[in-house]
Amino acid sequence: MSLSKLIVIVLIAGALGFAIYGFMMGNPGTDKANIEKTLKIISHIKSQAVRYYDETGSEPVRLSVLIAKKYLSEQEALDAWGTEIDFKSPSTPEAGGIKSTVCVILSAGPDTNLGTKDDIKYSFDLTTAVAE
């Protein structure tokens, strides 16, 4: 085998190794873009929840209510990683029946698991928020 062929093989193997490493470790640039996209999705969900509240006088208990009433599509209830967004209003059982109009929208973030440090959380008050 000639030296030039050996150099080409080493370069290809190195590039392949680097590509595999990058794939396994994730791409920080992609995560940043997905976080920005998810923040836009969350903003849209907030806007539709406020619109629902303004039009009906009641809070949307879950995202399924907004989907059933055609305020959101099922696709609009997914974050940039394809994970379903979690929505909690004061009337959800998890809220413990607290008298409040504060809602919480949660994305599981890049690791796609809720309850971890990379979750994206947004809270807002239905009575003071403005639909965009």
Biggest sheet architecture: 3 strands, antiparallel
Cα radius of gyration in angstroms: 22 Å
Unreliable residue stretches: 18-25
Number of helices: 3
* Beginning-to-end CA distance, first to last residue: 66 Å
Q: How many individual β-strands? A: 3
Structural class: alpha+beta
The portion of residues forming beta strands comes to 5-15%
Strand order within the widest beta sheet? 1-2-3
Instruction: Write down the overall mean pLDDT.
Output: 80
Order of SSEs:
HHHEEE
The helical percent reads 40-55%
- Shape label: elongated
Question: What topology does this entry show?
Answer:
Layout lengths: L2 H23 L2 H29 L6 H6 L17 E3 L13 E6 L12 E6 L7
Antiparallel strand pairs: 1-2, 2-3
Index terms:
three-stranded antiparallel β-sheet, alpha+beta, 132 residues, 3 helices
Report on this model:
By secondary structure, this protein is an alpha+beta fold. 44% of the residues lie in helices and 11% in strands. A 3-stranded antiparallel beta sheet has the order 1-2-3, with helices on one face. The longest helix has 29 residues. It is elongated and about 80 Å long. The termini are far apart. About 6% of the residues have low confidence.
